[in-house]
Amino acid sequence: MKIGICADHAGFELKRQLVDYLQRKGYEVRDFGTDSTQSMDYPDVAHPLADAVVARQVDCGIALCGTGNGMAMSLNHHRGIRAGLAWNKAIAELVKAHNDANVLVMPARFISPAMARLIIRTWLGTAFEGGRHQRRIDKIEPGR
């Protein structure tokens, strides 16, 4: 599985740790930046990640910023992206099972590296339930 990942300056350090973690677990990781803690604008890395997910250059994505909200807002402007913000195991499971999130967004300033790893394991290990949830997903992008 190929996973795209991006972060702004607030998520850079956590992203670095998560890239190492994912690679140790056998995932191929494509890093969309940023590459330092120097202040930058999160849409500059969110949009290329979203484009790669939509184009199927990566199987899914992970994005980090201070609260996760800026990344989620930027990502969700792309047709075909369902970016879900998760800050604990239960939310990570639900954004996949009920919302079929193809990008996981996490609030880097509010979770520990251990929690981030748990969130990722949960999200990657959860299947979309379909059924009534598919009907709702279809209404996110009418005419899809």
End-to-end distance: 25 Å
Radius of gyration using CA atoms only = 14 Å
Sheet with the most strands? 5 strands, parallel
- In percent terms, what proportion of residues is strand? 15-25%
> Which architecture per CATH?
3-Layer(aba) Sandwich
Instruction: Enter the CATH topology name.
Output: Ribose 5-phosphate Isomerase B, Chain: A
* CATH-assigned homologous superfamily: Sugar-phosphate isomerase, RpiB/LacA/LacB
- Beta strands, count: 5
**Overall form:** globular
- What is the overall number of helices? 6
Q: Ranges with pLDDT <50 over ≥5 residues?
A: none
Order of helices and strands: EHEHEHEHEHH
CATH class division? Alpha Beta
Averaging pLDDT over every residue, what do you get? 96
Helix content: 40-55%
Query: How many domains make up the coordinates?
Result: 1
Give the spatial strand order of the biggest sheet: 2-1-3-5-4
